[in-house]
Amino acid sequence: MGFVLNRNFWGAGIATEALREVLAYGFDVLQLNRIEGGCDIDNIGSEKVMTKAGMAFEGVLRKNERIKGEFRDTKIFSILKSEFDSMSRGGGQ
Known about the structure:
This protein is an alpha+beta fold. 39% of the residues lie in helices and 32% in strands. It is built from 3 helices and 3 strands, in the order H-E-H-E-E-H. The protein has helices spanning 14-29, 44-52, 81-91; strands at 34-40, 56-67, 70-80. The chain has a 3-stranded antiparallel beta sheet with strand order 1-3-2.
């Protein structure tokens, strides 16, 4: 999933709410066991969206993407179905 949000709406929880719905669809409808995502190492906003949605930081892929002619690092996050289910029952964020 990728997202772009107008700056006027940053910090309102819109992207986090949307990601939680995507996670729910992935686990409940598609019956996935694990969902992962990544963001540029300097993209603090996307990192916050993933952690607020319950995703855990796993590590960094070094220089794995070329963006605007420069190789960049990517932070990787994931969540398991069991973790999502636990959060949905009030055990987390």
